[in-house]
Write a structure and sequence with these properties.
The complex is a heterodimer of chains A (118) and B (112). Chain A has 118 residues and is mainly β. Chain A has no helices and 11 strands. In chain A, the strands form 2 sheets. In chain A, strands 2, 4, 5, 6, 9, 10 and 11 form a 7-stranded mixed sheet that branches. Chain A has a 4-stranded antiparallel sheet with strand order 1-3-8-7, with no helix packed on it. The chains are: A mainly beta (118), B mainly beta (112).
């Protein structure tokens, strides 16, 4: 089946530092990846859509200068939280769409990255 | 506006009992509907999906869901719950934009 990995699984950093999170599709090529944010006991909120070889599309209210997305290859998208602050602490989850599927896409989710900014 | 409502924030059932988790959606066009399960600190696993055709869809782990257009619902069911089913369940809808809109989730607890 389609497998998506994320690295790191957990990161703790000081306020003001930048953090990079990687999302990889392991057994398929993903032209589109999605980044979500989940606050404790809340649902997932789509942050941005990452398209291979082009700029990401951000949802309303998401700061593109704060959350930098790069989708340089068909198997890797990265989310960089620039100058992280405590309010950026959250659970970040990526998903990847397998374009090989015959039906309307199914998104496969990574295991998530827990970010804690001190 | 597109939205998904999961009216039950928290449900507790006894092991072996039947389960129904409710999901209502608001979507202007033909929706694509999904149920995902999330274990603590983990990503989401797809349980089942509805795109078209038979309105009763079967998923993994013994789950099924029924699409009822007249009620704008896509409730998840399981005839006999196992302790390992304790997790959070998310209903989601998407359409032509391929963006998933999630409900707020239902946390399932299973009593022995």
């Amino acid at each position: 089946g389609a497998v998506v990995s994320q690295h790191p699984s957990r990161v703790i950093c000081k306020s003001g530092t930048s953090v990079k999170i990687e999302c990889r599709s392991l057994d398929f090529q993903a032209t589109t990846m999605f980044w979500y944010r989940q606050f404790p006991k809340q649902s997932l909120m789509l942050m941005a859509t990452s398209n291979e070889g082009s700029k990401a599309t951000y949802e309303q209210g998401v700061e593109k200068d704060k959350f930098l997305i790069n989708h340089a290859s068909l198997t890797l998208s990265t989310l960089t939280v620039a100058s992280a602050h405590p309010e950026d602490s959250s659970f970040y989850i990526c998903s990847a769409r397998d374009p090989g599927l015959a039906v309307q896409e199914t998104q496969y989710f990574g295991p998530g990255t827990r970010l804690l900014v001190l | 506006a597109q939205s998904v409502t999961q009216p039950d924030i928290h449900i507790t059932v006894s092991e072996g009992a039947s389960l129904e988790l409710r999901c209502n959606y608001s979507y202007g066009a033909t929706p694509y509907l999904f149920w995902y399960v999330q274990s603590p600190g983990q990503g989401l696993q797809l349980l089942l999906k509805y795109f078209s055709g038979d309105t009763l869809v079967q998923g993994i782990k013994g789950f099924e869901a029924e699409f009822k257009r007249s009620q704008s619902s896509f409730n998840l069911r399981k005839p006999s719950v196992h302790w390992s089913d304790a997790a959070e369940y998310f209903c989601a809808v998407s359409g032509a934009t391929n963006k998933l809109i999630f409900g707020t989730g239902t946390l399932l607890a299973v009593q022995p």
